[in-house]
Specification:
Keywords: 4Fe-4S, DNA damage, DNA repair, Hydrolase, Iron, Iron-sulfur, Metal-binding. This protein is of the alpha/beta class and 238 residues long. It has helices at residues 3-14, 20-32, 69-72, 80-91, 129-146, 158-170, 208-212, 218-232, and strands spanning 57-60, 112-115, 152-156, 187-192, 195-203. A hairpin with a 2-residue loop joins strand 4 (187-192) and strand 5. It is globular. The structure holds iron/sulfur cluster (SF4).
Amino acid sequence: MDPSGLDRLDQRIAGCRACPRLVEWREEVARTKRAAFADWTYWGRPVPGFGPPDARLLIIGLAPAAHGGNRTGRMFTGDRSGDVLYRALYDVGLASRPTSVHAGDGLELYGVRVTSPVHCAPPANRPTPEERDACRPWLVRELNLLRPTVRAALVLGAFGWQAALPAFAEAGWTVPRPRPAFAHGAHVTLDAPDGPGLHLFGCFHVSQRNTFTGRLTPEMLREVLRTAAGAAGLPPPK
Ligand code: SF4
């Protein structure tokens, strides 16, 4: 693919102001900050996807966290959810280091890109249906740019699943009707009339609610990552 195409897309996403409520919230959070991060200059803008332009596996979350991605400018970076996700990616050999602390920390992902259907941090982590729909075209464009290489997608949580299915359909993959239900470990193959299909996997979200309660354990996450990476044709994970 054309790497500069994805770079350009990321720049355009970072400048988006289409959702008034989310623009106000992300900027308000960036001004007021959390006491623990008082010396940070928050990003306070939409957070683009993170990872190489020729990724074979796409991980799709929900939306950036107010003091995580909205602070650091990188997906899943600077919060507990990200700690769990990047640790697992490192453990299975898909990341160069076990932590993701800030956008300049040198972390590299191997064949994996992380994105979300909503690029701005929403109040209470809950975008409205209108905000979700407004942001979908960004994910469709990202899918179109990744199409030459992407072979599997791992969606974290039911909201991301619901938001991502229409984006896959708009990007040209065939989504079965009725739409497949989300479940941890769900695996659906989306065909494409004019190219390779896509293996779609579901995984419980890496939220604290799931990881603190043991609903999603590190081994469960590693296992689904290994399966998705294998389906994507990535070198055998650890
Ligand atoms: S949520 Fe998406 S569409 Fe809405 S302002 Fe942010 S980047 Fe733009």
